[in-house]
Design brief:
The protein is mostly helical and 122 residues long. 41% of the residues lie in helices and 9% in strands. The protein is built from six helices and two strands, in the order αααβαβαα. The protein is globular, with a radius of gyration of 17 Å. The relative contact order is 0.12. InterPro entries: AB_hydrolase_fold (IPR029058). This is Lipase 3-like. It comes from Hyalella azteca (Amphipod).
Length: 122
Amino acid sequence: MPVHLANFFEGTSARMFSHGAQPADIELRKFDFGEAENRRRYGHVTPPAYNVSRIPCPVALYWAENDRFINAKDVRMLEETVPGFKRSYRVNSESFDHVDFIFSKKAKTLVYQDIVELLNQY
């Protein structure tokens, strides 16, 4: 764990983590800079939603029931909206959560093997 934590934030930014922590409604929205900066950048006080219907590539979504950042309702919305949606994979573990995709010793068998099989199809 010390090795993981020492390198956890490599290759990312504080804005990315801040964006992930911003409240999300049913839509995926661009970064919220606050009302004044949003108005300057986006022309509105709230950030605009991403147009996920324009995603041109195949999409697979791996998610878990215990994940605080995505739920079955979000998955259904993406299935219905993203034209290249190919796969919705719910991890077969009630305790699996968001960080387990990276840190769980079970991720290899519960997630990664399926990802590799899917990638091999392309």
